[in-house]
Design goal:
Length: 192
C-alpha cells in the first residue's frame, strides 16, 4: 500500500484534470479566502462547502496549503507523543503493547501517523489504535469476517478508529492478551 505522501502525490498530479484548477491556483485561492492555511480542517471544510471539492482532492490541497505556510508533517513518533501526553500519558504502555504485537505479525507491517490515531498497515490498514479517553485505548480492527469464540466475543461494531469495522476497548497492558493478539492476527490475515 502506498504511503500517505504517495497517495497525496497521486491525487495532486491529477488536480487540474479533475477540478479545472492547478494546485498552485487552489493554493492562491485558499490564500485569498481568509481561511487560516495552517488550520487544515478549516481549509478542507471551506473547499468542500464553497467549492464542492472531492474528499481526496481537498485533503491534498489542504496539505499543500499548510506545507507552503510552513507546516511540517510530524513523524510517527511525534504523532504518538502528542496522542499519549498529558492525561493520556498513562495509556502509552497499552499502546506500546499493541504496537509490539502488531509489528510482530510480519515484516510487511508498517506503522503510520495520524493526528488522532495510529494505523497499522499491510497492503491496507488492518488495525488502528486511538487513545479514546484518559483511561481507555480503542483498538480498531478491519475484520470483514470476525472470528468466532472468546476472542470474537470481545469485539464491538465500529467505524473508527481508522478503517475499523470492529473495536476492542483496552485499559491496561494485561488487556493485550492472547485473544487480542489473535484478533490482530485475524485482521492482518484478512488484509493480504
Amino acid at each position: 500500500m502506498p504511503s500517505p505522501e504517495d497517495m497525496l502525490s497521486a491525487v495532486t498530479s491529477s488536480i487540474q484534470e479533475r477540478t479545472g484548477r492547478s494546485l498552485d491556483e487552489w493554493v492562491a485561492l485558499v490564500d485569498r479566502s481568509g481561511v487560516d492555511p495552517l488550520d487544515q480542517p478549516a481549509v478542507r471544510r471551506w473547499l468542500r462547502d464553497v467549492h464542492e471539492v472531492g474528499q481526496n482532492t481537498l485533503w491534498a490541497i489542504a496539505d499543500e496549503v499548510a506545507r507552503r505556510a510552513g507546516w511540517v508533517r510530524p513523524t510517527v513518533e511525534q504523532y504518538v507523543e502528542q496522542q499519549y501526553a498529558g492525561t493520556r500519558a498513562g495509556l502509552r504502555p497499552v499502546f506500546e503493547a499493541v504496537r509490539s504485537a502488531a509489528l510482530a505479525l510480519g515484516d510487511d507491517v508498517r506503522i503510520e501517523g495520524r493526528s488522532t490515531y495510529v494505523p497499522f498497515v499491510r497492503r491496507r490498514q488492518f488495525a488502528a489504535v486511538a487513545a479514546a479517553t484518559a483511561t481507555r485505548v480503542d483498538l480498531g480492527l478491519r475484520l470483514p469476517d470476525p472470528p468466532p469464540g472468546p476472542a470474537g466475543e470481545r469485539l464491538r461494531p465500529a467505524k473508527a478508529p481508522g478503517q475499523a469495522t470492529h473495536k476492542v476497548a483496552l485499559t491496561s497492558v494485561e488487556d493485550v492478551d492472547d485473544d487480542v493478539r489473535a484478533l490482530l492476527r485475524a485482521a492482518y490475515e484478512q488484509s493480504p
